[in-house]
TrEMBL record, chains A, B:
InterPro entries: GK/Ca_channel_bsu, Guanylate_kin-like_dom, Guanylate_kinase, Guanylate_kinase_CS, P-loop_NTPase. It catalyses: GMP + ATP = GDP + ADP. The gene is gmk. ATP binds at G12, P13, S14, G15, V16, G17, K18, G19. PROSITE patterns: GUANYLATE_KINASE_1 (PS00856), GUANYLATE_KINASE_2 (PS50052). It is found in: Cytoplasm. It comes from Lapidilactobacillus achengensis. CDD domains: GMPK. Residues 5-184 form the Guanylate kinase-like domain. Its EC number is 2.7.4.8. NCBIfam families: guanyl_kin (TIGR03263). This is Guanylate kinase. Essential for recycling GMP and indirectly, cGMP. One of its GO terms (molecular function) is GMP kinase activity. Belongs to the guanylate kinase family.
Length: 204, 204
């Protein structure tokens, strides 16, 4: 098949476990798509590796990329930049490979406006109380930050209407399998395969 | 969940194997949906049972149902009526259960116009030559009928644009699994689950 790859956007509120789900997806189904590594100005958390989890950059470096038109999307979130370098995404899609983005909600909305045939998946917490617990347990933020994140999460869940799918992150394994079903199913959408069928008809 | 059930419409060209795929779905996943038995005026094929495979009715009986507004959809196809009784479908959806229809293409388009949130799946032959082989092998129709069916099939494949998904019936087991993925994935669509999430937000 010479079809263009599919852009899969995994997003959701802060603390919902996007990074964990993405890591599990890469571990289990990593041969089926390419993960686009995000760029950020935030500090690495313990165990995070530059060029694997994120491209860790200074604010100055990040703003230079923005100025050069090199970002598919970017946003500031809790005082730091997060974004997706454009070049890798475009090259990979052109090669016919699916690309996975794991990005913040504001960035996802920018991608939605640019890539109308992307698949937009919103990862949801089982409920907001559990979200609060998770953020507290992570223990790397002060209370003011946590309160700000909770308010942001409420606003973000209201943004769910801008997504195609909502996947509950009740268990990472289950969330990953649901996302895999969505990806497989999206590849069967008429809008994605019509060209192939029309050329089949032409052969007759 | 008190959500309304989802209407799943399986259709495709004559001879593509809709009936076989539907039977395999019922056998493997029958507890997950209710199959809506179609009504037809055609003669039963060997092994087909009234009230199981179809409701077999006379033309007169069928036309009385139409006149009474009792059909969700109906069409004449190769000289016979095929259609879906309305009452069972509505009752089952209201109970929160998914309903599977396996119907002809003309009927599916009528359902599309009435049930905008249905899931419309087009079963496709691996290619039109294999479709021709299958029709010939079935051996119950004369050549004029086969030619008419082939022409109809070409027209129907052009109708694929009116469907949500295209599933190749290369192997029945694979087709069934693809359809199951589609159903699971459609249940995660934001448009279907938004009410649940909004009530969750309200609780906080």
């Amino acid at each position: 098949m010479s079809e263009k790859g599919m852009l899969i956007v995994l997003s959701g509120p802060s603390g919902v476990g996007k990074g964990t789900v993405r890591q599990a997806m890469v571990a289990k189904y990593g041969q089926q798509f390419k993960y686009s590594i995000s760029m950020t100005t935030r500090q690495p958390r313990p165990g995070e590796v530059d060029g694997v989890d994120y491209y860790f950059r200074t604010r100055n470096e990040f703003e230079t990329e923005i100025a050069n038109g090199g970002m598919l999307e970017y946003a500031q979130y809790v005082g730091n930049y997060y974004g997706t370098p454009l070049r890798y995404v475009n090259q990979t899609l052109e090669q016919g490979q699916d690309v996975l983005l794991e990005i913040e909600v504001k960035g996802a909305m920018q991608v939605r406006s640019k890539v109308s045939d992307g698949v937009f998946i919103f990862l949801t917490p089982p409920d907001l109380h559990i979200l609060q617990e998770r953020i507290v347990k992570r223990g790397t933020d002060d209370m003011a930050t946590i309160k700000r994140r909770m308010q942001t999460a409420r606003e973000e869940i209201n943004l769910m209407t801008n997504y195609d799918y909502a996947v509950v992150n009740d268990q990472v394994e289950l969330a990953v399998d649901r996302i895999e079903q969505i990806i497989a199913s999206e590849h069967l959408r008429v809008a994605r395969v019509l060209d192939t069928y029309q050329s089949m008809l032409g052969e007759d």
